[in-house]
């Protein structure tokens, strides 16, 4: 495994571990998701450049578009929960209490 592949796989793993173990605020969960998407985007872009094919060149841009949509939906949920509950702490959010 090259150092570049190790750094991107470790960045993805750290983002996943942060999402799994540090779930106090919704904003920190969104930041972990964005870090994971950024590492996936860079790894996919390097993979497309390594194969030197035009067929793989659209995949990183498609992932980046989906990542932007995910970020906007996450921020909309963050604003909605902050307005209704007064905080973004995940312990205060109960889905059974609608």
TrEMBL record:
It comes from the Eukaryota. One of its GO terms (molecular function) is NADH dehydrogenase (ubiquinone) activity. One of its GO terms (biological process) is ATP synthesis coupled electron transport. Keywords: Electron transport, Membrane, Mitochondrion, Mitochondrion inner membrane, NAD, Respiratory chain, Translocase, Transmembrane, Transmembrane helix, Transport, Ubiquinone. GO terms for cellular component: mitochondrial inner membrane; NADH dehydrogenase complex; respiratory chain complex; transmembrane transporter complex. Pfam families: Oxidored_q2. It catalyses: a ubiquinone + NADH + 5 H(+)(in) = a ubiquinol + NAD(+) + 4 H(+)(out). Belongs to the complex I subunit 4L family. Core subunit of the mitochondrial membrane respiratory chain NADH dehydrogenase (Complex I) which catalyzes electron transfer from NADH through the respiratory chain, using ubiquinone as an electron acceptor. Part of the enzyme membrane arm which is embedded in the lipid bilayer and involved in proton translocation. This is NADH-ubiquinone oxidoreductase chain 4L. The lineage of its organism: Eukaryota, Metazoa, Chordata, Craniata, Vertebrata.
């Amino acid at each position: 495994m090259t150092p570049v592949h190790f750094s991107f796989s470790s960045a993805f793993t750290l983002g996943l571990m942060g999402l799994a173990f540090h779930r106090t605020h919704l904003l920190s969960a969104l930041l972990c998701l964005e870090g994971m998407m950024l590492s996936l985007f860079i790894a996919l872009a390097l993979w497309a450049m390594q194969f030197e094919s035009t067929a793989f060149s659209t995949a990183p841009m498609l992932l980046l578009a989906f990542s932007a949509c995910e970020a906007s939906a996450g921020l909309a949920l963050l604003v909605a929960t902050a307005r209704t509950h007064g905080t973004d702490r995940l312990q205060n959010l109960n889905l059974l209490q609608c």
